[in-house]
Amino acid sequence: MSTDPDRSLKLAGASNFRDLGGYTGADARPVRWRRLFRSDHLAALTPQDAEVFTSLGVTRVFDFRGRDERAAVPYELPGVAQHPLPIEPTVVQRMKDLLDAGKAVTPAHTVELMQETYRAFVHDNAARFAALFQHLLDSDAPLVFHCTAGKDRTGFAAALILLALDVPRDVVMQDYLLTNDLYRMPALPDARAPREVLHVLWRVQQEFLDAALHAVDADYGGVQPYLSRALGVGEAERAQLKRWYLQHD
After folding, report:
1. Residues that are catalytic
2. Strands lying side by side in the sheet with 143-146
3. Counted domains in the chain
4. pTM above the 0.90 mark?
5. What phi, psi does 44 have (nearest 5°)?
6. Which domain holds residue 232?
7. Which one of 45, 52, 157, 240 is most buried, counting C-beta atoms within 10 A?
8. How far apart are alpha carbons 169 and 217 in whole angstroms?
9. How far is CA 95 from its chain centroid?
10. Within a domain: 144
């Protein structure tokens, strides 16, 4: 019988809050539990959620939300340092522009927009992901990284971390797709976009993360060269990540 802790923390106010522990990385060593957490935003935690959060010993949080997102839904957590790593949600603005122009937005077009967004993560937002890795290398204290829904910006960050630890790509994809099982889409009574379009926007598809990883492969020759050249995570840094975030015998 497995003694591993639950991956999903089942928080009422952050449905996509989950642990990256347990996945098998380099040298068949699993990722340490209760060190690396990914989540949707943390502004809606209930008092009971806050107790669970405190019990995890998290002292640092990394927030990928854009400036307006943070301002609209701020939060404070006692004893926890917040580090903004803003990546503006461009796909939402592009959708709004299309709707304002009276253009029809289809699910297929939305998938294309999402893929473009993920490709932009690779190049346009590399500095933000590099900053996250620098914090990972500064300390192995428990941390959470998140955006609004914890699925796109957060999903790419989680994929990079797991790939840096040599977790197989198919397993990384499985973790990425867990959002569809866990995340509760917010109520949007005044949404102008068709429901089938919102279904694309508020969920994840393999095609989204694949778009980013294919860009990494095509433009850098693979994940390891990308980590090294774009994010400053070379062989020595990856060795340090493995010492801190993989279990030892």
Report:
1. 147
2. 18-19, 36-39, 143-146, 60-63, 81-84
3. 1
4. yes
5. -110, 20
6. 18-22+30-245
7. 157
8. 13
9. 21
10. yes
CATH label of the domain that carries residue 87: 3.90.190.10
CB 215 within 8 A of CB 124: no
Q: Specify the DSSP element, H or E, that contains 200.
A: helix 195-201
How far is residue 144's CA from residue 179's CA, in Å, rounded to a whole number?
16
Residue 89 lies in a domain: yes
Residues 89-96: contacts with CB under 8 Å, at least 24 apart: 89/65, 89/148, 90/117, 90/120, 91/116, 91/117, 91/201, 92/201, 95/193, 95/197, 95/201
Q: Does any domain span residue 81?
A: yes
Q: Between the CA of residue 121 and those of 92, 116, 193, what are the distances in Å?
A: 15, 9, 24
pLDDT tier, 4 (very low <50, low <70, confident <90, very high otherwise): confident
Cα separation, 228 vs 163, in Å, equals: 13
Helix, strand, coil fractions of the chain, as percent rounded to 5:
50, 10, 40
* Beta carbons of 54 and 74 less than 8 angstroms apart: no
pLDDT per position as a tens digit, 40-82 = 999 999 999 999 999 999 999 999 999 999 999 999 999 999 9
Q: Is residue 207 assigned to a domain?
A: yes
